[in-house]
Write a structure and sequence with these properties.
homodimer, alpha/beta, Isopropylmalate Dehydrogenase, 2 domains, eleven-stranded mixed beta sheet, 11 strands, 49% helix
């Protein structure tokens, strides 16, 4: 690793642009002494925000860019409009050029994925990035992938996801041989799809560096049954969004229940310490950041609507990944697995 | 409709067998005056439970059966062992013979689906039953299907699901033209799979008896954005289980938070009325029952582990479906749609 540790930030990305990015960078700097930033964006806007953070200003190099990728642009439009001159492209390119160790953007997900793929390229044998997220459970948080990068996935891809998720688990949770579960459904005799069954057979009978635990169902994720949950991107994205929606729904139920009578309101006031603890535990900002795995570089997508606390989490994860040599570890594990396939892909 | 309204019950199904089935039947009888039952199961066990419920005993005909399908039998095993002589098969057959208007079982899902399909047959153009469930939201409950009957679904099937879900919404919620959303993911430019996109195009540009609202994401389900949520069975089952898991996870967080200090415990005690309201709202027993849609008869799968309150809900839904003429309505709507296809299925 080239020192000092340097992270490239797309300062224009996200619903709140430079304001949140810069404040988040300042917050992460407090967690990561010696960290350096390369900030890509509108010079005036970035410097204006930097005025508030003296130490951050010293740790940062500002690189002016002229184009901002809008949050609702299609990836193809973004590539046409933003190639070369956008804050997003330039920030990714910094990783390619070795000027930064990782890039964080809260911008347009599809554009970030398309640009990362073109600029950084995929690791051998990997076709498209998988999006991995950190999912809080009643035990320790787990990693779930793919959250939408690949709609549908072959058995080979599912095994790749298991390896990439395990490498990520090792990098941030320091688990030597992470436990892995394959998401499936339990309704039918012929359970699940062919790809999932084939991936199951491979994972169950291999010397891959994971502790494979077999099929799990949707309700096992929140129980913290495994360290890494593997599924293709369509069902993974639906699981993630459904969990977010259910958590919000429970929050509404709870608020309405506590406001249902004067005495309940009083009780809730008395229990405010407990409710603060609950709020902290349900605070997903600590887990903010979708990691694009399988690229020849570290790219983290921050939630577009997050605040500086969430943005700082994404930066902190990026730093962990760099220190752990995540890309190299994924490359090694995936290459080893594909060598055992002898150039064939798995049927199913 | 042949009077009186008669429901066939597989008295041996579920984790608790006749005990819960009979108590649930008694409870539903209080909601449905004049209801008649045909109870299929071990004579001794059933009569023993009936001793507790005089009115129910008068409203019931007991048909002794000699085989019980175990909860973990594979459907193929169940068909070999249980065809003809099992409580499950006999109860389904009662609908086929016109001796009952609907059947409820808390038994093995795969076996119930396989037997229903063989005994009752599918409606024209429908290949396999879709499993529809009632999903509580912050507004009115909605219907979600398929929850696992069909792994993967063509565009034609997805439109069939929309029609079947809408017919069910009309039957139990009396909504004339239910709003329908197609579950999709919002990450990629080329959003979702081909089948989903084709179904979207058909639903958006048709005279089908639904108020089509376009794509929705997982977090929109709990918001109550639409009356009917349509997806294929793999992602639908994962969404359902993930939501259940998340609700339980929130419950654990809440309990731990309220026990985090003495003063929070006191506050929670004071707010116990509010917590009771919350518990009631989160009580999924009121929505218990997966409806198998697309069959030439009404079949409801009760959750295997539910109690009499949950079981009674499943019976109550069965009664609503019979009164609304659900099967005929589905048959008409699906036939109309398939006629517009002129014998072709949708590409994608």
């Amino acid at each position: 690793m080239k020192t000092p540790l340097t992270i490239a930030l797309d300062a224009m990305g996200g619903d709140h642009g430079a304001k949140v990015v810069i404040a988040g960078a300042a917050r992460a700097l407090a967690d990561q002494p010696g960290l350096q930033y390369r900030l890509y964006g509108d010079e005036g806007l970035v410097y204006k925000q930097l005025e508030r953070f003296e130490e951050l200003a010293r740790a940062s190099t500002v690189i002016p860019t002229s184009v901002t990728i809008s949050m609702d642009a299609k990836p193809s439009q973004a590539l046409r409009a933003g190639r070369r001159d956008s804050s997003m492209w330039k920030a990714i390119e910094a990783v390619k050029k070795g000027e930064a160790h990782a890039v964080v953007s809260a911008g347009n997900t599809g554009a970030l994925m398309a640009m990362s793929k073109i600029c950084l390229k995929m690791l051998p044998n990997i076709e498209r990035p998988a999006i991995a997220g950190i999912w809080p459970t009643i035990k320790q948080p787990c990693i779930v992938l793919d959250l939408g990068g690949n709609v549908g996935a072959s058995a080979t891809k599912l095994v790749d996801f298991a390896l990439m998720g395990a490498a990520m688990s090792r990098a941030i949770f320091h688990i030597d041989k992470p436990s892995v579960g394959l998401l499936n459904i339990g309704v039918e005799e012929v359970k699940g799809v062919e790809e999932v069954k084939t991936a199951h057979a491979v994972l169950a009978d291999s010397d891959l560096p994971v502790d494979y635990r077999g099929f799990i169902e949707g309700n096992d994720i929140g129980k913290g049954e495994v360290d890494v949950v593997v599924t293709e991107g369509f069902s993974g994205n639906i699981a993630l969004k459904t969990a977010e929606g259910t958590a919000r729904q429970m929050g509404v139920y709870l608020r309405e229940a506590m406001n249902s009578s004067l005495i309940s309101k009083l009780g809730a006031l008395l229990a405010s310490g407990g409710f603060r603890a609950l709020k902290h535990r349900m605070d997903t900002r600590r887990y903010n950041g979708g990691s694009f795995l399988g690229l020849k570089g570290i790219v983290i997508k921050s939630h577009g609507g997050t605040d500086e606390i969430g943005y700082a989490s994404a930066i902190n994860y990026a730093c962990e990944f760099v220190r752990a040599g995540l890309v190299e570890r994924i490359a090694t594990d995936v290459e080893h697995f594909h060598n055992t396939l002898n150039g064939h892909s798995l049927s199913g």
